[in-house]
Design a protein that fits this description.
single chain; alpha/beta; about 290 residues; TIM Barrel
């Protein structure tokens, strides 16, 4: 089923954290290496999120780009690790997918280890190569969606979207930014309005926020974004504290879904299949934000 049709029909549930969940299970180092060295570990986590009710699972590739991997001397393996991560998620999603409940794979494209606006040790050309390599691996591995997440720098996002469109003219692209502690701004310091004005929003399927954000901060940011764009909106926050229960985590998301302001919800750092299971049951009661 077409992804856009799903977003009009229901509030789609995104999975929870990949990195912190893998670390909690005893994995260390470059987690993207698990895609080829211990694929069963990654597959099991994907399965648990799908069993919990996730409609979308994200690949274990947030740091699979060349700039991140360069710090470990692994930059030449970017395409390999991205493709392997996509193929893993694809296999699992296909096992769970049905005509009535299709499951989608979102290729996680992280912010890299550099913000182009501030960095003096990289270039637009190097950034382009880094994004192009990981995105090509994800597409070749069979993802349905590209999720440019934890975004901080609009210049990075512009390049990522440009490279994605060179490789695929039609694949859905979602951009999710990280909020600053300063209300109304993203992590780079730009206002929410300025950040989204500076990226090619006409190429996107959905926009939103992920990672650390307080309840008040999240609500204010979503209000601003909903006034800026009629695109579907995604939000997937981290836990506000390490031991936050599924009930506590879901409470503000439930209120936002009830208010009709979201199309995709999920969890970021610290969240687990238990959080996603409770989230999937709660949000099933509400209708998605109208985007037309």
């Amino acid at each position: 089923m077409d992804f856009n049709r799903i977003l009009r029909r229901k509030i789609a549930v995104l999975d929870g954290a990949m990195g912190t969940s893998l670390i909690a299970r005893g994995n260390k180092g470059v987690l993207e290496l698990l895609n080829v060295e211990a694929p069963d570990v990654v597959e099991q986590l994907h399965e648990e999120y799908l069993q919990a009710g996730a409609d979308i699972i994200t690949t274990n590739t947030t740091c699979a780009d060349m700039l991140c991997l360069k710090e470990y001397g692994l930059q030449e393996r970017s395409y390999e690790l991205a493709r392997a991560g996509a193929e893993l998620a694809r296999r699992v999603a296909d096992r769970f997918s049905t005509t009535e409940s299709p499951r989608f794979v979102a290729g996680s494209v992280g912010p890299t280890s550099r913000n182009l606006t501030l960095a003096n040790d990289t270039s637009a050309e190097e950034m382009s190569e880094s994004y192009a390599t990981v995105i090509r691996g994800l597409i070749d591995g069979g993802v349905d969606i590209l999720l440019i997440e934890t975004a901080m720098d609009s210049q990075n996002v512009k390049i990522a979207v440009e490279q994605a469109r060179k490789l695929s003219s039609s694949m859905p692209i979602i951009v999710s930014a990280v909020l600053s502690r300063i209300e109304g701004r993203v992590a780079s310091g730009a206002t929410i309005a300025k950040f989204f004005e500076d990226i090619p929003i006409q190429e996107l399927t959905a926009v939103g926020f992920n990672c650390t954000m307080g309840e008040k901060q999240m609500e204010g940011a979503l209000k601003t974004l909903s006034e800026l764009s009629r695109l579907p909106i995604v939000v997937y926050p981290s836990l506000s504290k390490v031991d936050e229960s599924p009930t506590q985590f879901v409470k503000p998301l439930d209120r936002l879904c009830r208010a009709g302001v979201l199309n995709i919800v999920g969890g970021c750092c610290g969240t687990t299949p238990d959080h996603v299971e409770y989230l999937s049951r709660v949000v099933a009661r509400w209708r998605p934000r109208k985007t037309e």
